[in-house]
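User: Can you recover a sequence for this backbone? Please restate the input before giving your answer.

Assistant: Of course. Working from this structure:
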């Protein structure tokens, strides 16, 4: 199995990577969605940003990128009403991890973050 992005699949991966980065690093989109990052600081009326091109996000190809986000999601504090649902998402992601299926883990993490964001908007 190859980890290259093609056409619609690439758009889904890119959108998932952006969602993950916004969730994990608190990033925002810049430059018509071509860059993702966050304000690092400002000095003398000039802002400094920590940015990366969206194409360079590696959450779908690198365990070094994906695992810290999984750990973060696994450890976030949730109220009792959604704890069991969150745990179910954690288990689905973990099953892909033990299968060494990074694309599957990426996709399950995107689903979990989407679910989590929906819960926090209620």
């Amino acid at each position: 199995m190859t980890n290259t992005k093609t056409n619609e699949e690439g758009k889904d991966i890119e959108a998932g990577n952006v969602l993950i980065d916004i969730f994990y690093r608190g990033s925002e989109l810049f430059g018509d969605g071509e860059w993702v990052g966050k304000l690092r600081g400002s000095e003398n009326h000039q802002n400094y940003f920590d940015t990366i091109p969206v194409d360079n996000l590696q959450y779908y190809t690198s365990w070094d990128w994906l695992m810290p986000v999984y750990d973060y999601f696994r450890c976030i504090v949730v109220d009792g009403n959604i704890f069991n649902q969150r745990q179910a998402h954690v288990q689905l992601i973990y099953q892909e991890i033990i299968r060494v299926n990074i694309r599957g883990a990426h996709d399950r993490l995107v689903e979990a973050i989407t679910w989590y964001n929906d819960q926090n908007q209620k």
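That completes the design. The chain has one domain: 7-120.
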